[in-house]
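Need tokens for this chain, all 72 residues.
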Amino acid sequence: MPNIAVIHYSSTGTNFSMSEAVAEGAREAGAETRVRLVQELAPDAAIDANPAWRAFVDAHRDDPRASLDDLE
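Here are the structure tokens for all 72 residues:
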């Protein structure tokens, strides 16, 4: 069974939605998948300047983050 990691960055959720769709398609094709968000590096001042960005960061605070292990 293929093992697929979908690693993405999303500030407001658009890329997150696309990543979820890619993972779902891979699952439907028989792959084992995991979706990983890249760690946010932007300063809080920049995030706070965009309410949609802040909402996404807060809503996905506990989502798994990508690590080097995801590349194996």
